[in-house]
C-alpha cells in the first residue's frame, strides 16, 4: 500500500444510500466491506463522518434557528453516524474506537491525540465524532485538523463523483475531470474541494487530498495503493 495511515472523510448524506433521510444499513455494510479490504492490508484508518443525513446546523440557521445551537445539533448527528459505522465495522470483524470532541462518556472516549494514535498503532479503526467540538467549523475542517494531528499521510474524501471536475458533472455533461491539481491550481480556478478553512489548513501542512468515488467497489483499495482513480490535490 502507498499510504500507511489515512484519514477517510465521508459525508453524512452518503450513509443514506437510496433513502431520502437517515441511515441505510445496506450502505453501511458496503462501506464496512470496503474499509475492511484496506484494513486487512495493514493500512491504519481514521474516519470523520458528516451529519447531513440527520441534521445540518447551517440549514437550521437559514430557517431562523440559532447558528451555535444548530451547529451543536449537527455535531451530535455526526456522533450518531459514527456509532452506526462503528457497529457495521465491528460486525465485519474489525476493532474500533469512537472518540468525540464533545464528552459523551457513556458511548465514546473523549478525543485525546495520543490515545488516538496508539489505537491506530494497534490496528484499531478510530472514528472521530462531533467535529472539532466548536460551532462555525465544518466536518471537512475537522477531518483535516484530525489528519494533521495524527500525522496522516493523506486525506481521502469519499464522494459520489470520481474526482474534481471543471464544473459539476451531474449538471454539466461537458465537464472535464482533473487527475492531479496543486493547491494553487484549486484556488486559481475557484474549484470546490473543501470549505476554505479546511483547504487552507491542508495546504499549510502539505497534507494531500484525494477526492474519489467511494460508492464504486474497489476504489478505496485502489486509492490506497496509489492508483489514479480520483483527483489528487498536492503541493
Describe the protein:
With 235 residues, the chain is α/β, with parallel strands linked by helices. The strands form 2 sheets. It has a 9-stranded mixed beta sheet with strand order 4-3-5-2-1-6-10-11-9, with helices on both faces. Helix 1 packs across helix 3 and helix 5 packs parallel to helix 7. The model has no long low-confidence stretch (mean pLDDT 94).
Question: What does the average pLDDT come to?
Answer: 94
Question: Number of DSSP strands?
Answer: 11
Query: What portion of the residues fall into strands of 2 or more residues?
Result: 15-25%
| Tally of alpha and pi helices | 8
- Rg from alpha-carbon coordinates: 17 Å
Spatial shape: globular
Q: What topology, given as strand order, has the largest sheet?
A: 4-3-5-2-1-6-10-11-9
Distance between the termini: 21 Å
Helical residue percent?
Answer: 25-40%
Brief summary of the model shown:
It contains eight helices and eleven strands.
SSE inventory with pairings:
Layout: E1 5-10, H1 25-39, E2 44-49, H2 57-62, H3 67-91, E3 96-100, E4 109-110, H4 113-121, E5 125-129, H5 139-149, E6 154-159, E7 164-165, E8 177-178, E9 180-182, H6 183-189, H7 196-204, E10 209-213, H8 219-224, E11 231-234
Parallel strand pairs: 1-2, 1-6, 2-5, 3-4, 3-5, 6-10, 9-11
Antiparallel strand pairs: 7-8, 10-11
Amino acid at each position: 500500500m502507498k499510504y500507511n495511515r489515512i484519514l477517510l472523510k465521508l459525508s453524512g448524506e452518503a450513509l443514506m444510500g437510496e433513502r431520502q433521510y437517515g441511515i441505510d444499513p445496506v450502505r453501511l455494510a458496503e462501506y464496512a466491506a470496503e474499509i475492511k479490504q484496506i484494513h486487512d492490508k495493514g493500512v491504519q484508518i481514521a474516519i470523520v463522518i458528516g451529519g447531513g443525513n440527520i441534521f445540518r446546523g447551517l440549514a437550521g440557521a437559514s430557517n431562523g434557528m440559532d447558528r451555535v445551537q444548530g451547529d451543536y445539533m449537527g455535531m451530535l448527528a455526526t456522533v450518531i453516524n459514527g456509532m452506526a459505522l462503528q457497529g457495521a465495522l465491528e460486525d465485519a470483524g474489525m476493532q474500533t474506537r469512537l472518540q468525540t470532541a464533545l464528552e459523551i462518556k457513556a458511548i465514546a472516549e473523549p478525543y485525546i491525540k495520543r490515545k488516538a494514535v496508539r489505537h491506530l498503532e494497534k490496528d484499531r479503526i478510530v472514528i472521530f465524532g462531533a467535529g472539532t467540538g466548536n460551532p462555525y467549523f465544518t466536518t471537512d475542517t475537522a477531518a483535516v485538523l484530525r489528519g494533521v494531528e495524527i500525522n496522516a499521510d493523506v486525506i481521502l474524501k469519499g464522494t459520489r463523483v470520481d474526482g474534481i471536475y471543471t464544473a459539476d458533472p451531474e449538471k454539466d455533461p461537458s465537464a472535464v475531470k482533473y487527475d492531479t491539481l496543486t493547491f494553487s491550481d484549486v484556488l486559481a480556478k475557484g474549484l470546490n474541494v473543501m470549505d476554505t478553512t479546511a483547504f487552507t489548513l491542508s495546504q499549510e501542512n502539505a497534507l494531500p487530498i484525494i477526492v474519489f468515488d467511494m460508492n464504486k467497489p474497489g476504489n478505496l483499495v485502489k486509492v490506497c495503493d496509489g492508483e489514479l482513480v480520483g483527483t489528487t490535490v498536492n503541493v
